[in-house]
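Methods: example folding runs. The two proteins below were folded one after another, and each record is reproduced exactly as written to the output file, sequence line first and structure-token line second.
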Amino acid sequence: MVYVSMTGFRPRGIAQLPVFWWRTIRSFTQAQRAPGNLVAAGRLVDGVYHTMTVWSDLASMRAFVASGAHLKAMKNFRQLGSGRTHGFACDEIPEWSTVYDLWRRDGRDI
């Protein structure tokens, strides 16, 4: 069993992009190196920046979220833009398109 998380973020405007990218690159690098991370992928879809991460378990994902660059990025989240997230457990690593469809249907605003 794995835990999958997708977040979509829309920056408020062009002025927020430098800080957004600084935070994103640092958080993405942290995710790639985090214990329990199996997949870290990003895509831009219709002006929304998406990350999909897959973890060996929920505890690994929670440890990542509550530490380092990601924690700092979350503290600036609302100042930079808006987004939504969706996470779920499943038996195997899903395709991006499957996770994206679930995110669109079941994601919650953050």
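Second run, written to the same file directly after the first:
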Amino acid sequence: MGNFTFEEMNLMCIYNTGSRTGLIDSLREMRGELSPEETELRELTDSALTKLCAMTDE
């Protein structure tokens, strides 16, 4: 995988569905449930999503 931080890797392990696209969907769904106060988790999720979306499955 790309240049993911330790925290991003942990987050992706929690929401891993077995595919990159499934992981992206899971993270987006979780992000939609975050409260306004959960800024750190939102930023971590956004960072991981940016990196995941820039990748390909090839």
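Comment on the second run: The chain is about 65% helix and 0% strand.
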